[in-house]
Design goal:
The structure holds two protein chains of two kinds.
Chain A: H1 3-20, H2 22-42, E1 46-49, E2 52-55, H3 56-86, H4 89-94, H5 100-130, H6 138-160, H7 166-183, H8 195-203, H9 205-218, H10 227-247
Antiparallel strand pairs in A: 1-2
Chain B: H1 3-7, E1 18-27, E2 30-40, E3 45-49, H2 56-63, E4 71-76, H3 86-89, E5 92-95, H4 107-115, H5 124-130, H6 146-158, E6 164-168, H7 176-191, E7 195-200, H8 203-209, E8 212-217, E9 220-225, E10 238-242, H9 255-258, E11 261-264, E12 267-272, H10 275-288, E13 297-299, H11 303-311
Parallel strand pairs in B: 3-7, 3-8, 5-6, 6-7
Antiparallel strand pairs in B: 1-2, 1-4, 8-9, 10-12, 10-13, 11-12
Helix pairs in contact in B: 4-5
The chains are: A mainly alpha, B alpha/beta.
């Protein structure tokens, strides 16, 4: 088979496995939707973001979209890579002629596709339930989703190398993103966050993904592409990919 | 690439499928494999025996291309495993010591998935049938028993129609009937002309399946041969033993037996180089005395006895 045909074959299997896995279905797909509904129900009114007054729901749609993208890529991929490595599945796969780059890119591809689907769901729910108009700057929005999802998929491969036990994968990934959601303008508008916390948040990629996704919703004119934020995301992604390329393991952690 | 070039790149069916010379492996300062020589020919079932920690799995994983070695020469299907490429991997089937199957897939989906990785796979249904899982095609892997999972693992190893199959302790943890079923599967592989490299703890398994056996202990091969001749088993003395009739002393045995008879645990043991002659003398003596020697046994050292003796220093 050609590389493209092998990728299509593996992608189909990985997508099927994603969908059949209850943890992926509930935590990755359902949880962000529940969060959006709860936040929109509790917090009413308007907020000020980057000098513009917007409806809180207009803030929460890209905010929870950030969470959905990170769940689909970073959280889900880290957990599944660690689980499959420790179960010996990756080692067994390494013994077949399937090229490593197909294994890796297919997994990342599933994450990006699920992120796109999650984002579309958020857009739809926002539009239908809360009257948050689907932004006209679609190119900017798509770019932010794809760059963000790819960067967080790379981060997943990097972080997976540092987790030795399956049981640790979900807590470690959730702990690494939850506090950042609160200070990065995902759950709480930036204007309500103390400066020193926002300074910390700006170092990490979540802040920049949230900002790049929000831009198409609040920009009154122009392409609404958040260039600097996309560059920061890209840098994190490339750094993570280089780290993962050096440290990636196919065999379980036990033993010599 | 022409189809036949990938089947026999060495150009000769006589060249060993596995050729290992002076293989060494150390982890830090610890020597785990200390100079191993092995040759396995095409179509042979080769059993690699040894206690845990003897270097068995390390050796197998070097042959499979999972681990680099510290020294020596290794050729598997004409290629050094450290240079493993996709073509080489497509000609080898693996059953690793432990592997959990993806819980999200059914038997058929998983075998079909693996079939897609190989250039010339066997039929999916036919392979499921070969490993005795016909009727379980639509079962999720989580619904299978331990023995069925291991057979599924064997099915995945065979789906690419490999020339060489590595089976690392394929029946560990099986109940006796699952073990015998697995043996039938492996015997089937042999009749398909596959070369099989098998590691096992079970002597009866090696006895039932292997054409040739090598024993590794403390990183060295300590014996090699057929299951019938391993460790000089075919030339070893037979053990003739019985309980002396009441009121009889060992000195009352016929002269030729007295010299070699030993009393152990209340039984007389005679290490007999010529068991027929010894038995003739013994039974003649017993009949004359009207004793029937009701618990008389003649035993050959089992493969297990030989193995335990070879590995007892570990």
């Amino acid at each position: 088979m050609t590389g493209a045909a092998l990728f299509a074959h593996q992608f189909r299997i990985d997508l099927l496995r994603f969908w059949r896995n209850p943890q992926s279905r509930y935590f990755t797909v359902l949880l962000p939707i529940v969060f959006l509904v709860i936040f929109a129900a509790i917090f009413k009114g308007t907020t000020v973001v980057e000098g513009k007054t917007i409806k809180l729901t207009t803030f929460y749609v890209p905010g929870i979209m950030t969470m959905g993208i990170i769940s689909a890529t970073y959280v889900n991929l880290t957990v599944s890579v660690v689980t499959q490595r420790e179960r010996g599945e990756l080692k067994r796969l390494r013994g077949t002629p399937l090229p490593a780059r197909v294994v890796i890119s297919s997994r990342a591809g599933v994450g990006v596709v699920v992120a796109l689907v999650m984002s579309a769901l958020m857009l739809l729910i926002g539009d239908v339930a809360y009257g948050v108009a689907i932004p006209s700057a679609m190119v900017a929005l798509l770019l932010a989703i794809v760059v963000g999802a790819t960067a967080f998929a790379c981060l997943a491969f990097a972080v997976s190398t540092q987790i030795r036990a399956t049981d640790a994968a979900a807590p470690v990934t959730n702990l690494s993103v939850l506090p950042l959601y609160f200070i990065s303008g995902v759950f709480v508008p930036n204007t309500q966050i103390p400066t020193f916390l926002r300074d910390i948040a700006e170092v990490f990629p979540i802040y920049h993904l949230a900002k790049a996704l929000r831009e198409p919703f609040i920009a009154s004119h122009g392409a609404a592409i958040a260039g600097t934020d996309l560059l920061v995301l890209g840098a994190w992604g490339i750094g993570a990919l280089l780290f993962a390329a050096r440290m990636f393991r196919w065999s379980p952690s036990e033993g010599v | 690439m022409p189809a036949n070039a990938s089947v026999h790149p060495q150009g000769s069916a006589d060249a060993p499928v596995i050729d290992v010379r002076g293989l060494c492996k150390s982890y830090d300062e610890r020597e785990v494999v200390r100079g191993i020589d092995l040759q396995v020919s095409r179509g042979e079932v080769f059993a690699f025996l040894g206690p845990n920690g003897a270097g068995k799995t390390t050796t197998v994983e070097i042959l499979e291309g999972y681990r680099p070695r510290s020294g020596g020469e290794v050729s598997v299907l004409g290629l050094d495993p450290v240079d493993a490429n996709h073509d080489w991997r497509s000609r080898i089937g693996l059953v690793l010591q432990s592997c959990t199957m993806p819980p999200e897939l059914t038997v058929h989906e998983l075998v079909e998935a693996y079939a897609g990785y190989y250039p010339h796979p066997r039929g999916v249904a036919e392979t499921i049938d070969l490993v005795g899982l016909a009727g379980q095609e639509d079962a999720r892997t989580t619904q299978l028993s331990g023995g069925q999972l291991r057979r599924l693992d064997v099915g995945l190893a065979l789906i690419g129609d490999p020339e060489l199959v590595f089976l690392d302790e394929p029946t560990t943890g099986f109940d006796p009937s699952a073990r015998h079923h697995a043996w039938e599967v492996i015997a089937n592989l042999r009749s398909l002309g596959k070369t099989i490299f098998l590691t096992t703890h079970y002597m009866d398994e090696a006895q039932a399946l292997a054409d040739r056996v090598a024993v590794i202990a403390a990183g060295r091969i300590v014996a090699e041969g057929t299951p019938q001749t391993l460790g000089g088993r075919d030339r070893a003395l037979s053990d003739v033993s019985f309980t002396l009739p009441a009121g009889t002393g060992i000195a009352e045995l016929p002269d030729q037996l007295v010299a070699i008879a030993e009393l152990r645990d209340g039984r007389v043991h005679i290490a007999a180089a010529e068991p027929a002659r010894m038995l003739y003398a013994l039974t003649g003596w017993a009949l004359a005395r009207r004793d029937d020697l009701g618990d008389l046994t003649v035993a050959r050292p089992s493969l297990e006895d030989v193995y335990l003796k070879l590995t007892e220093d570990q």
